[in-house]
Amino acid sequence: MTDHAEPSSTAPRKVVPICAIGASAGGVKALQDLFRNLPADLGLAYVVILHLSPDHPSALSDILGSCTRMSVLQVEDGPSLQPNCVYVIPRIANC
Known about the structure:
alpha/beta; 4-stranded parallel β-sheet; globular
């Protein structure tokens, strides 16, 4: 047995504070106003879900992308959250 610890095979995960925002379909204007006025460097990951019909496509990522300097991404397969990014959850049935 040696006195040396084995190196960790995984790097420590960086903790990213999350701001989760939910709204009805009528909340798009409020979301636009919010993201127009938020500084782009607060260090938060913003997760946005809008209650929409699953039968209609959503342009929320594009709409919010035009209101902020932060990257706006539609969530695909549970991304690793990064600070100063906006993650839009796609419409979900029965939500």
